[in-house]
Amino acid sequence: xxxxxxxxxxxxxxxxxxxxxxxxxxxxxxxxxxxxxxxxxxxxxxxxxxxxxxxxxxxxxxxxxxxxxxxxxxxxxxxxxxxxxxxxxxxxxxxxxxxxxxxxxxxxxxxxxxxxxxxxxxxxxxxxxxxxxxxxxxxxxxxxxxxxxxxxxxxxxxxxxxxxxxxxxxxxxxxxxxxxxxxxxxxxxxxxxxxxxxxxxxxxxxxxxxxxxxxxxxxxxxxxxxxxxxxxxxxxxxxxxxxxxxxxxxxxxxxxxxxxxxxxxxxxxxxxxxxxxxxxxxxxxxxxxxxxxxxxxxxxxxxxxxxxxxxxxxxxxxxxxxxxxxxxxxxxxxxxxxxxxxxxxxxxxxxxxxxxx
Amino acid sequence: xxxxxxxxxxxxxxxxxxxxxxxxxxxxxxxxxxxxxxxxxxxxxxxxxxxxxxxxxxxxxxxxxxxxxxxxxxxxxxxxxxxxxxxxxxxxxxxxxxxxxxxxxxxxxxxxxxxxxxxxxxxxxxxxxxxxxxxxxxxxxxxxxxxxxxxxxxxxxxxxxxxxxxxxxxxxxxxxxxxxxxxxxxxxxxxxxxxxxxxxxxxxxxxxxxxxxxxxxxxxxxxxxxxxxxxxxxxxxxxxxxxxxxxxxxxxxxxxxxxxxxxxxxxxxxxxxxxxxxxxxxxxxxxxxxxxxxxxxxxxxxxxxxxxxxxxxxxxxxxxxxxxxxxxxxxxxxxxxxxxxxxxxxxxxxxxxxxxx
Lengths: 357, 357
Hints:
Chain A has about 350 residues and is α+β, with helices and mostly antiparallel strands. The first copy, chain A, folds into 2 domains: about 5-165 and about 280-355, Aminopeptidase (3-Layer(aba) Sandwich), CATH 3.40.630; about 170-275, Alpha-Beta Plaits (2-Layer Sandwich), CATH 3.30.70.360. Chain A has 12 helices and 19 strands. In chain A, strand 1 (about 45-50) and strand 2 form a beta hairpin. The longest helix of chain A has 17 residues, at about 95-110. The first copy, chain A, is elongated and about 80 Å long. The two termini of chain A are about 40 Å apart. The model of chain A has no long low-confidence stretch (mean pLDDT about 95). Strand 13 of chain A pairs antiparallel with strand 12 (about 220-230) of chain B, so a sheet runs across the interface.
């Protein structure tokens, strides 16, 4: 305990470094959650803990409430821990995704007692693993009232200092073909399931994905085979082949419409939906969103990926992604963050939370 | 030692049962080879041993020499050992493939001192595993002279009492496609290797295999994907896909011609030949082959599969497959052989070896 001193909490760069140096690969968030909880316990915020997820709320009676959210976990270390500073770059696992963003939220929670809007800070566990373990999902399922009184959510996932609005949905489908085994020396006695998968790949190869403009944000879709497998042995006609297909879809489609589209494209094949998560519309009309965009001063772009803003959208809370990290460095061995992007991010978010329009 | 008593050796059915009950899964042939060697040591045959492969030759000065060959090993036990007799059926691992055939050869080696042709008996190890360990291949490579003075070979592999002539060749080829990884949310940054495999499967699906008649035997070919694999993760555009293709070809093609044909069919793709074995022509013109067919009294059919007759063919020795086992029961849990087929097989082969045309 106590790594997060008052001095460290007052400096979002030092705080990023300190959070990175508390190892918190998904499933191992106990220590970092303890330290975040301890740092928040000295404030006027109302703090509650669920597993290793911490919720801290101002209770200032403001007419509007916003969420600032960041996850505490990282992907597994990859010989890139602890942190290391090199000029303007802070290197290490979690620097971009997303301890620099989480540090901005924690820094403001501790140092900004009088925001214009009430704020619900959420520091949550297990974002990088199975959806069922996701701390924000568990909170949204179990105690939605702690979130639903907000009219806007800012998720500090890496966007490299830009505003990324909404997010794509994602759907994974298994397309299966069946045949009959036989010795390959007498192949006419069998029925080749791998050959039968040819039209599946052919349709995916010829598929023309849409680009959809929503609220000025360009969402590109994609329908791709991500895995294929089939076969028994080098001398056996295969009786089963599975093509795993991932559809990334724009937020003008619901999950059901996305699944129906994949069923259209792959009509005639046995399909099984194995994973589905909704898209989120950009949600730029909410007043706090407009204020935030004004504070940034640059137009938003579409989030091309899936993030937890979709969980907020599902609760009826419009959300934006904004963080100092570069999303292209997330999960990479050479993950790093630009220090001046952290400073700029903390300034922008504080200005939004304190200065009137 | 000593399980193979004089009484057992005099009865091909009892001998089949005894050989089955000496467990000899490939790699574990020491015991069965010892017992076969011991059984042969009491005869006038010239016996030599190479690993667990036994060669026993008559030296009668006959103008013509024939080979009788059978392998000693079996595929792994599958809760089907030791043997069990049920009416006309002898059940157990190796009953069909091919201890019933090997028993006929060993029975004749011990009980038939005066065949019309000189005979080279070959009892060999490791037929059911990698070609490099095959006892007949090792013998053909290291001491070909022990085989090449024969003008005909009879391989007692299971044919259910029919004569199966020649054999198909077999070729295995990997067809690879390459792409570029990217996050599936931004698939346009990548290049999908699985989609690129569509034309490979499409061409295999549309392929029309030949049927070729050679010496009255109908050889059917087949070109099949036997395995397909590709993919990195559920959210990554795959950068590699591999389709493993097996070509079973008629003996009017050489291995080189077979490979060239596959290159034609899959033109434009990266191909790697990983396994190749030549076909064998029926070879029905050799006088001992004609005599054998006359002894059987039924027309031959093509061997649809690969057998070691191709190794004899490669040494310039025409060969036929003939054995009591049912080839469709080989490698199956319920493997068995019909007892009267063993008796009939031993009679036919003895008649051929002793009675003039």
